[in-house]
Each structure stands twice: as C-alpha cells, then as structure tokens.
Specification:
mainly alpha; 84% helix
C-alpha cells in the first residue's frame, strides 16, 4: 500500500516535530519575552516579530529533520507552502493572544505559551499533509 510507510512514519515525525517545536518555541518565546519585558513592546507586536523568528527556525528544522526533505529538494515550493501555513497560524495566534491577554487578563508569557500549545497539532497536520509532502 502506498500510504502505509507514511502512516508508519507518523509517530516518528510527530516526536521529531515535537522536538523541533521545542527548539523553535524557545527561540520564539525568548524573543517574545525580551521584546515584551525588556523592550516594553505591545504583546501583539512582539508576537509578530518573535513568531517570525521562530518560524524561520521551525522551517529549517522541520524540512531537514522532521520531514527529511533536505535543503535543496523542492525548496521554493515548500517554503511558499510553509509560509502560507505560518500566515494562518500567525493570524490565529494573534487572535488567541488578544483574547487571552486583553479579554481574559492573562499574563503575556502565559498567554503566549497557551496559544502556541493550542496551535501545535493544527500546524503539524498542515505541514505534514501539505507544506512538506
């Protein structure tokens, strides 16, 4: 069966995505914290910047490690699809941050952590099924 090897790879890819996601999240949340705490930047503006930095990390780690695509293989197409998924995820992230920080009064970093956790599986599914296929 054609889809069988891909289905067997799912647990490995999910674990690798989780590990890559931790690295990208550390980059993202560190930048977010520096921008909001040290830079006194509005959390929604800081999220736009920090998520983009984390997104660059995420693209390369997932392309090379999680989905084993190598740097040269279909680079332009995969990068375009990745950033389309990223744009959707960023819009949802901004919405969830606004709701949790401004609507619920949650502290900035706690809101950022919970927002990113909510988007984890959606991002994995879209990257696996479309961006890096």
């Amino acid at each position: 069966m054609e889809g069988e090897p891909r289905a067997r790879a799912l647990p490995v890819e999910l674990a690798s995505y989780g590990a890559s996601g931790v690295v990208a999240a550390v980059v993202d949340i560190s930048a977010f914290t520096m921008l909001t705490v040290l830079g006194a930047l509005d959390p929604l503006v800081a999220n736009l910047i920090s998520r983009t930095v984390g997104g660059c990390t995420c693209f390369f780690l997932n392309k090379v490690i999680t989905f084993r695509q190598g740097l040269r293989r279909r680079f332009a197409a995969q990068m375009t699809r990745f950033w389309a998924v990223f744009a959707l995820s960023l819009a949802l992230s901004e919405l969830l941050l606004a709701l949790t920080i401004r609507g619920m009064g949650m502290p900035d970093v706690a809101a950022k952590l919970s927002t990113e956790a909510c988007l984890f599986f959606m991002n994995f599914a879209l990257l696996r099924s479309w961006a890096f296929r």
